[in-house]
Each structure stands twice: as structure tokens, then as C-alpha cells.
From TrEMBL:
Its EC number is 4.2.3.5. NADP(+) binds at R48, K54. The lineage of its organism: Bacteria, Pseudomonadati, Pseudomonadota, Alphaproteobacteria, Rhodobacterales. GO terms for biological process: amino acid biosynthetic process; aromatic amino acid family biosynthetic process; chorismate biosynthetic process. The gene is aroC. This is Chorismate synthase. PANTHER family: CHORISMATE SYNTHASE. Keywords: Amino-acid biosynthesis, Aromatic amino acid biosynthesis, FAD, Flavoprotein, FMN, Lyase, NADP.
Length: 367
């Protein structure tokens, strides 16, 4: 079975394990003529790489990407692009305990139940090292989007850590790059630092909510019913390790609104384009982008590998306790931000290519 790929026309297959020699992505369907080099992809990988602050795993991986195929003289050729990242800082001895024991909240037990064999070193395929491959593929998607949809910008940030949400009144785009949490609220960044430090020292972890916004998305991407843009975005975000919930626009909160509150009223703008009074829809109606910001949020559960003992069983079914040593993220939501951005880039490019294939230029003129 081939269940390691996603995308329709822009198709990404990831491969590799945490403690194998390397991992990577095969990107098929990228249009030719896109200007790209390893440095452009590296830019995005550097945002995800471990060990950048005391609030992420202390694994020291440079995450250097190598382009093995599909690029000639600085441009994509239209053939498969093979991206490889070597694993250089494995410490398999840290994982001795999980050879026999299943970590509560991790994939150890289900991998064992399904396959009867598992690469326990660093979590093998279930390790979030796999997300480095997605970010590399997202770098290719971003380069293609820069050519095909100039002006489209994708930005991810954290909006909640544990019970502590940001104050939307203090939202500042410029703050996002200024703190280790990618949070657009300077006060939240300060508060979260001491909160997370306390949890980390206690051998505990915490969940988070990440929001990813795409601005400058053309109207018309996505298709009704089975090809909805929101369906593919939700699947893409849900496929990220540790994600337990996804929302588009108002999301779950839409259930508490009335029709009058939820209506994004439509007006004709001065530039001949429709404008909306609000964006409860998250930029998607009937599975098709409206031209407003596309807004996706996802909830990330707390890291399951923690230093506080938890009860579990061994492979033979004996009751035991587990303390997971090794270098783990106390809040995986932080490094999930660049991963969410990458998934947004891949899905939007995929739908841009689908739209070009079926329709070409948008046909429905207003005015
Ligand atoms: C960026 C990122 C980093 C992660 N780091 C860790 C980690 O250090 N330790 C851990 O136990 N889980 C970590 N996870 C989560 C596990 O990979 C995930 O919980 C596991 O694969 C089980 O899958 P599920 O949570 O989706 O069910 C991380 C997830 C992401 C997105």
C-alpha cells in the first residue's frame, strides 16, 4: 500500500525514519521553470530545526537539505524533485526503555499492534523528524507559488499554549519573528516563557493551538463536494504529528453563532472586486476560495514523551511504569508552526494547479 503521499497534481511522498541515515521527500508535479536552490529550501527548514531555544528539543540537527534531482541550472525541470536530509544527531540509547514499553499517548502501541515490528529508535517513522521532509517540500511549493501567485503570503503563529490564549487586541504581525514561540503578542511571549520553563523543569509538557493564514489567495481555488479546499487543508493539517483538531475560519465556534452574526456581508469594492464585512468563513465558501484570507487553526496535544513516570504495559502485557528520557519538545506546537505553513503551501499550490488545469483564468466576472 502506498499511504505516504499527499496532493493531487503537486504530489509529495515522504520517506525515512528518525534514526535512519537520512529522510526526505519526493516532490512530483512541480511545474518547470521555478527558480529554486537548496538555500531557498534551507531558509524554511531552519525555522523548524531543533535546538533553537531552550523551549524545543535539544537534538542538534543542522537539517541540511540536498537536492538530488529535478533541478537544473537553478530551475525546476518538471521531473521529480528528490530532497534528502541526513540524520546526524541520533542517540538511540536514549530510547532503550521503549523497546519493550509503550509510551502512553505515543504511537508505539498502535505501530506494534498493526505491524508487529517497529523501529523504536527515536520513534522511527512516527517521530516528528518526518515533518522536516514536509517543510522541505513546502519550500518547493512556496517557490512555485511565488511565480504563479505573486503576493500570496503564508504565515503561521501560535495563538494558545495550554490554557493561555493570546489577546487578539495585542495582535502584532511583526512580533511573530521576535520570540521563540512565533506568537504575535509580546506579552504572551513573556508569560509563556516562564510558564513553559516551569513545566519543562517539572518533567511535563503542554498542548497548543496554531493558526496559519494565507493572504493574497486568488478567488476560485478548490472545487465543490469532494475536492473542497477546506477538506484538503483539514486533511493536511490533521496529518501533522500530534494534531487532534482542525478548524477553518470560525470553526467550532460557528455552532454558537446566529445566521445574522455569521453572515460575511458582501459589498462592491472601489477596485471592482467584492469585499466582505467579516471572515467567519475563513476565506472558503462551498469548498472554493473567496479571495479573503484563508484561515486554518489546529490543536496540538502535549508531548507524550515526558520525564514524569506514567503507567503502561510491556510488549508481553506486563504492567510497568515508563519515564521517557531523550531530548523532547516540551510543547510541540512551537515547531509545528513551520510545518503547518508548509502544509498550507503544498495544498494551495496543488489547488492552483488543479484550477489552471480545469478552468484557466477565473470565468465568473463581477461587474
Ligand atoms: C514539530 C513536532 C515535534 C514533536 N516532538 C515530539 C517529541 O519531542 N516527543 C514526542 O514524544 N512527541 C513529539 N511530537 C509528537 C509525536 O510525533 C506524535 O505525538 C506521535 O507521532 C504520535 O502521533 P499522534 O500524536 O499524531 O497520534 C512532535 C510533533 C511535532 C509536530
Amino acid at each position: 500500500m502506498s499511504l505516504n503521499s499527499f496532493g493531487h497534481l503537486f504530489r509529495v511522498t515522504t520517506w525515512g525514519e528518525s534514526h535512519g541515515p537520512a529522510l526526505g521527500a519526493t516532490v512530483d508535479g512541480c511545474p518547470p521553470g521555478v527558480e529554486i536552490d537548496a538555500a531557498a529550501i534551507q531558509h524554511w527548514l531552519d525555522r523548524r530545526k531543533p535546538g533553537q531555544s531552550k523551549f524545543t528539543t535539544q537534538r542538534r540537527e543542522p537539517d541540511e537539505v540536498e537536492i538530488l534531482s529535478g533541478v537544473f541550472e537553478g530551475q525546476t525541470t518538471g521531473t521529480p524533485i528528490q530532497l534528502m536530509i541526513r540524520n546526524t544527531d541520533q542517540r538511540s540509547k536514549d530510547y532503550g526503555d521503549i523497546v519493550e514499553k509503550f509510551r502512553p499517548g505515543h504511537a508505539d502501541i498502535t505501530y506494534w499492534q498493526k505491524y508487529g515490528i517497529r523501529d523504536y529508535r527515536g520513534g522511527g517513522r512516527s517521530s516528528a523528524r518526518e515533518t522536516a521532509a514536509r517543510v522541505a517540500a513546502g519550500g518547493v511549493a512556496r517557490a512555485a507559488l511565488a511565480t504563479l501567485a505573486p503576493g500570496l503570503r503564508i504565515t503561521g503563529y501560535m495563538v494558545q499554549m495550554g490554557p493561555h490564549a493570546i489577546d487578539r487586541g495585542r495582535f502584532d504581525w511583526d512580533q511573530i519573528e521576535q520570540n521563540p514561540f512565533w506568537v504575535p503578542d509580546a506579552q504572551a511571549a513573556e508569560d509563556w516563557a516562564s510558564y513553559l520553563d516551569g513545566l519543562r523543569k517539572d518533567g511535563n509538557s503542554v498542548g497548543a493551538v496554531v493558526e496559519v493564514v494565507a493572504r493574497g489567495v486568488p478567488a476560485g481555488l478548490g472545487a465543490p463536494i469532494y475536492g473542497k479546499l477546506d477538506t484538503d487543508l483539514a486533511a493536511a493539517m490533521m496529518s501533522i504529528n500530534a494534531v487532534k483538531g482542525v478548524e477553518i475560519g470560525e470553526g467550532m465556534a460557528a455552532a454558537a453563532l446566529t445566521g445574522t452574526e455569521n453572515a460575511d456581508e458582501i459589498f462592491m469594492g472601489n477596485d471592482g472586486q467584492p469585499v466582505f464585512s467579516s471572515n467567519h468563513a475563513g476565506g472558503i465558501l462551498g469548498g472554493i476560495s473567496t479571495g479573503q484570507d484563508v484561515v486554518v487553526r489546529f490543536a496540538v496535544k502535549p508531548t507524550s514523551s515526558i520525564l514524569t513516570p506514567r503507567r503502561t504495559i510491556t510488549r508481553s502485557g506486563a504492567a510497568t511504569e515508563i519515564v521517557t528520557k531523550g531530548r523532547h519538545d516540551p510543547c510541540v506546537g512551537i515547531r509545528a508552526v513551520p510545518v503547518g505553513e508548509a502544509m498550507m503551501a503544498c495544498v494551495l499550490l496543488d489547488h492552483l494547479l488543479l484550477h489552471r488545469g480545469q478552468i484557466g483564468e477565473n470565468r465568473g466576472r463581477i461587474g
